[in-house]
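Weekly structure sync, notes
Attendees: PL, DS, HV (note-taker this week)

Item 1: Phosphohydrolase
DS walked through the input record. Source organism listed as Deinococcus koreensis. Sequence as pasted into the shared doc:
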Amino acid sequence: MWCYTPGVSRPQVWSYLLLLLSLGGIGYAAVTDQQVLLAGSALMLGMVTWPLGGLARWLSPVVYAAAFVASLTLPGNRPDLLELLGALLLIGGLGYITLREQGSTHELAWQRNTIAALRAGSERLAEARDADAIIRAGIGILDKLQVAPNMAFVAYRQGTPHILAARGVFEAFLDRPIHPSDSDSRSVQADHWVAEEVLALLKKPQRRSYHVAPVYGRASTHLGVLILTRDTETPFDEDETSVIASFARLLGAQLGQWNAIRELRDANDLTLRSLGAALERRDDDTGGHTNRVVSGSARLARRLSWADDQVKALRWGAYLHDLGKLAIPDSVLHKRGPLDPEERRIIQTHTTVGYDMLQDLHFLPAETLDLVRYHHERWDGTGYPAGLRGPNIPDTARLFSIVDVYDALTNARPYKPAWTRERALNEIRMQAGRQFDPQYVEAFLRMMAEQDDAHLVL
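Item 1 (cont.): predicted structure, written out as tokens:
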């Protein structure tokens, strides 16, 4: 009855049997001087050991050569020239096939590793939230490729090159500015001298071989340079330089896209700021209201650890919160004294009118539109336009309303003089749980107290 060791598959058992059979055949052929059997057994041994990879693939030519030499030592054995030539051809053929296939295996493993690293790295690049995160993710890809132990990405900050990301010995120089080592006048955008200065940071044994790859973004915009070094004399081969160049293009495309998005956001921010300033001219004779509420809201949001995207949405909403007042008649908007019920109804429409006016600006996030529509809602549900209550009021609107009311109280309006700081803060405190979110009020009051302490220190 046939049996096998638990945990060993049937193909593995057959491989072991064929291995033993091949070695036995080689041994018997060497002792009996059967050259045909010796060659056949060596070929079978090669087929058995081939799937094992590595040094096991050299077992067949080595064992065959040893067995053939051993057969020559047998008494009375006088091989002719054809036998010697046949043996040499067989050994050379087995060696050549082994070398070639090992190269192919290494190349296949390199390609698989490259694909895996680029796939994982592209996901990290896509998830990166800013340029520094993109650069770090990019260096991480190269590190996984194991192209070189030492690498650095050098980019320009305010006209001066800095090492922004690194691996290996370059990590000791992170964030270091790179300056010319001599007094010659040089272009700060010249990759050759930047690379020379960065390479000079390392000891000679750490940079026996190196490769430099420029990184370009959209419209051939120069974004930086990749520098890789090895402590061996082995030069970077064509496959490696090709992969590095592909990676540099990927990194440049991602950085270029991020820069384009940042420029668009900056343009949007500037446009909305200008619009807010124009609106302010119509509603606030003294000026400064928009900048004050934008600044105060952003500071309070950061104190509450809001995410950057949410702070941006809050800031944009603060610029636009009174956009709907463009539709309010001057007789109502600038009336000195209390409003009658109809005038109050008209002024209250500015929240929904502003919200409707912004519907076609698709780049505005929902949190911005929420602030414009709901910044006059009250915690107790008595606000307008929807009578929302408590946490049903969007966060941006809840936070902004505190800063907006405080600024309105401490600055003169056509219908009232300016309140003192202490009186306004006391009113904010009293309205916690009525008009305002109590937790946001507590954070706002702490922020204002710390601001007072800072002024005392100064």
